[in-house]
Specification:
The protein has helices spanning 27-38, 74-79, 101-121, 126-138, 140-155, 173-182, 184-210, 228-232, 270-275, 279-291, 327-337, 352-360, 402-408, 411-421, 428-438, 448-451, 481-493, and strands at 6-10, 43-45, 214-220, 247-251, 261-266, 294-298, 305-310, 320-323, 342-344, 365-368, 390-393, 443-447. By secondary structure, the chain is an alpha/beta fold. The strands form 2 sheets. Strands 9-6-3-2-1-12-11-10 form an 8-stranded parallel sheet. It has a 4-stranded antiparallel sheet with strand order 5-4-7-8, with no helix packed on it. Helix 4 (126-138) packs across helix 5 and helix 10 (279-291) crosses helix 11.
Length: 504
């Protein structure tokens, strides 16, 4: 799909300012949308909206469909009468520039529990009950399994679902019926939380769209083993007789890790998906576009071929490439849903079959400027190699910040940047953002850390490291008037302000 010439900002909502330990869908999110509009930006790119998993990663969620409960605006729950003012006294462990998961998660979950109890305590107003019932019915295909899964996961102290007793691991009907009865109250809690998340998120998205800003979402190719979807559809994943993964996903040794990355996600049984016409994937993509305007598919190359690692291996070194579903999957999605605004994350080892698959469906690929200056003029990340169907970034959530990258870059990279961009590197983050905006790529995305000129200590993630990341937050005091002015000026100079749309 052809994208208009635009630019935007990469910022996950958990990184937003706010008084309750984590950014959320409240006042700070609306203020950020207003700031994006002032800065001339047309896109807000986020990470997966699903809940966090091991290491607090949004890429290892307990559900591919459910929303992240950390993002629920608690002040909205107070306005509805489900929380009291005293409930919102911030915890002493909250930090303005760091999401302290150990403090924030239990505090927020307790407030959500209080709100759910208040909602259930007395018959709610008719419009609330009708809205809740309609939500549960519209989302029953995934919500029923999710709410039961989360209730059981809590009950069994979050041990792997294959270890659940009483026939629940294999979803035996009598055991399932009993569980629904036993855990009815907690099931209602999880459904209440998802109702509020979806209500708040769709309200925020409408606000952004009304100000000319589209949301760029993120869909990981693989999903977590400890998730409602794997438990509910075991037939669609490569599991052994006990329900454990035989093989897991990852990537071979690369720029980020000498031993590769062993992600640990179960591998799809692609033959089973094909037999049902890729119905599960069609539903997943359909639901994604109910929440966002554009979807970035993480690790797109895995659809052409994927790196399979025996589950017994501690690293990703001893893996193998195997063919993915290729065009058959996207043909099925296209037939069911029509043309879609999808970005293909085509980083890493991109082989001709990956490029051919991307081009067949006209999905824009990605170029990272931090990767551009370590070689010679043939480096495909350099702007003179960019094409229109490209999304160019200074860096992604997996990269160091641009200032951090520059501090540790080689002498060769320093020289190449200075020669290529005709700069001295004193303002390196703006140098690279200018280069991104000047590129012929239809889309340019700037991480918020780069706009603020922040260093390594503010990076969002470090691939292969399981702890200490996904925590970054900013404060509004860090955002100066000049930041919005400079971004808006770059959009004007390089035709990313919408003024040239009618001429193209």
């Amino acid at each position: 799909m052809k994208f208009p010439r635009k630019s935007g900002v990469l910022l996950h909502p958990t990184s937003l300012p706010g008084p309750f330990g984590s950014g959320d869908l409240g006042t700070g999110a609306y203020h950020f949308v207003d700031w994006l509009q002032t800065a001339g930006q047309k896109l807000w790119q986020i990470l997966p909206l699903s809940g966090i998993g091991p290491g607090n990663s949004p890429y290892m969620s307990s559900s591919a469909f459910a929303g992240n409960l950390l993002l629920i605006d608690l002040e909205d729950l107070q306005r509805e009468g489900w929380l009291q003012p005293d409930d919102l006294t911030p915890d002493a462990g909250f930090e303005a520039q760091r999401l302290n998961f150990a403090a924030v998660w239990p505090w927020r979950m307790e407030r959500l529990a209080r709100a759910a109890r208040a909602f259930a305590a007395v018959p709610p107003p008719a419009h609330h009950q009708a809205a809740f019932d309609a939500f549960c019915q519209a989302h029953s295909a995934w919500l029923d399994n999710y709410a039961l899964f989360m209730s059981l996961a809590e009950h069994f102290n979050w041990k792997d679902w294959c270890e659940w007793e009483g026939g629940l691991a294999l979803r035996e009907p009598p055991a399932m019926d009993q569980a629904r009865s036993t855990h009815a109250q907690r099931i209602a809690f999880w459904k209440f939380c998802q109702w509020r998340f979806f209500t708040q998120w769709l309200r925020l998205r409408a606000y952004a769209n009304g100000r000319g800003i589209q949301i760029v979402g993120d869909a990981p190719i693989f999903i977590a083993y400890q998730s409602a979807e794997v438990w509910a559809r075991q037939d669609l994943f490569d599991l052994d007789a006990s329900g454990r993964p035989r093989v897991v996903a990852g990537v071979p040794p690369d720029y980020f890790s000498a031993t590769g990355q062993r992600w640990g996600n179960p591998i799809y049984r692609w033959s089973a998906h094909a037999e049902e016409g890729y119905a599960w994937w069609i539903e997943r993509v359909r639901r994604s576009f109910e929440l966002v305007d554009i979807v970035r598919i993480d690790h797109f190359r895995g659809f052409a071929s994927y790196w399979e690692v025996p589950a017994s291996e501690p690293t990703a070194i001893k893996g193998q490439w195997l063919p993915g579903p290729g065009a058959a999957l996207f043909n099925a999605i296209h037939t069911a849903l029509g043309p879609l605004a999808i970005i293909a994350e085509d980083l890493g080892e991109v082989t001709p079959d990956v490029e051919a698959l991307r081009r067949e469906f006209a999905f824009p690929g990605m170029r990272i400027l931090q990767f551009a200056f370590g070689d010679d003029s043939t480096n495909t990340f350099l702007p003179h190699h960019h094409q229109n169907d490209t999304v160019v970034y200074t860096g992604t959530h997996d990269n160091d910040t641009t200032c951090g990258w520059w501090k540790t870059a080689s002498d060769k990279e320093h020289k190449n940047v200075r020669d290529y961009l005709a700069v001295d590197g004193h303002d390196i983050h703006w140098d690279l953002m200018r280069a991104a905006c000047a590129s012929v790529a239809d889309t340019a995305i700037h991480p918020m850390q780069d706009i603020l000129g922040l260093g390594t200590e503010h990076r969002m993630n470090f691939p292969g490291k399981c702890e200490g990341y996904w925590e970054w937050r900013f404060e509004w005091s860090q955002v100066l008037p000049e930041h919005a002015c400079r971004l808006a000026e770059l959009c004007r100079i390089y035709g990313r302000d919408g003024s040239n749309d009618l001429k193209r």
